[in-house]
Design goal:
single chain, mainly beta, 4-stranded antiparallel sheet, 10 strands, 49% strand, globular
């Protein structure tokens, strides 16, 4: 079981950028996919992006062209570069992983707050 710790959140004005980091306690190289999700109060946790062990990425439509997920296997870290931030991006961001494509993402970290102001 790999433990995950998110960091890098903060307060940013609309149009600005943040880079989130997800540090893993062990190797992530062979994990099927690492993902980022976000959640606002009273709403379900929503998928944002994932990257597979082979480097294939997927994004929710609302962040395509603005967010970039990447991984550094040597550092056991996954990143989410967020550019052109919008008010609706405000949420607690969590990273997690899935062991295969037939099971949901899980093993969430503690989350990091991203707040976008006008």
């Amino acid at each position: 079981q790999v433990q995950l710790v998110e960091s890098g959140g903060g307060l940013v004005q609309a149009g600005g950028s943040l880079r989130l980091s997800c540090a893993a306690s062990g190797s992530i190289a062979s994990i099927n996919a690492m993902g980022w999700f976000r959640q606002t109060p009273g709403k379900q946790r929503e998928f944002v992006a994932f990257i597979t062990s082979g480097g294939i990425t997927n994004y929710v439509d609302s962040v395509k062209g603005r967010f970039t997920i990447s991984r550094d296997n040597a550092k056991n870290t996954v990143y989410l570069q967020m550019d052109s931030l919008k008010l609706e991006d405000t949420a607690v961001y969590y990273c997690g992983y899935r062991q295969n494509k037939f099971w949901p993402f899980g093993s969430w970290g503690q989350g990091t707050q991203v707040t976008v102001s006008s």
